[in-house]
Amino acid sequence: MAESQAGSPVPPYRRPESVLIVIYADTDEFLLIERCKPAGFWQSVTGSLEWGEMPDDAARREVIEETGIRDGVLTNLQWTQIYEIWPEFGRIYAPGITHNREHAFALRLAERVPVMLNPREHRRYEWLPGAEAVARASSSTNRTVIEHLRR
Predict the structure, then answer these.
(1) pTM for the full model?
(2) Per CATH, which fold does 20-150 belong to?
């Protein structure tokens, strides 16, 4: 088992708790990014919480890691969704773990900003009008947050 920076043991499996950060501009445009695997899977920024990490810290970390965006107003929407882990992603969780708790966040920008993707995780990105973003988002939890922000 690896050790954390504090010297305590880190479990070998991913924590089944994550953040979803919907990034949008005041122009009613939403940022969606396509994962490398599975191909054709479009989503907002997402990522697992590290062991011992709080959701707010994970949200800011994931936005920077996945897009390079450091601006904007990050808001914890104060609600979570539970979803079943797809078989393609299940191997990184401990045996018997079938569901994930996802914390919803929004990152509001005045306008589009440059995006720098990590090519190991994502193929490309698009800024889409709200209705198109809802239609393109691959996960139901992602669509729910976008629809909530459009109201």
Answers:
(1) 0.88
(2) Nucleoside Triphosphate Pyrophosphohydrolase (3.90.79)
